[in-house]
Amino acid sequence: MIRVTRLNGEQFALNPDLIERVEAHPDTVAFLVDGTKYVVKESVDEMLAEIREYRAGILATSYEMDRGEYRALQRQSVTSDSSVVPFPSREER
């Protein structure tokens, strides 16, 4: 999900996989595949950068998971928060 801002300042998350196109007229409008339109403060270039960053993050996580690095990174990030329970790896199952 990417975070965008309505013209009134309210932020919300938008699934970039559902964005069909983004146009500026002069406000930026994101058109979704179902016909929904959102007018946002971010420029077209900012929206494209957010979408690229989102997709790059998915690819990076997929690469880490494929190499077995993702679980190690998750275990390192889990500190004293007992509410976070990491998913067991294949070897642990």
Automatic annotation (TrEMBL):
InterPro entries: SwrD-like. Keywords: Cell projection, Cilium, Flagellum. It holds the Pfam family FlbD. This is Flagellar FlbD family protein.
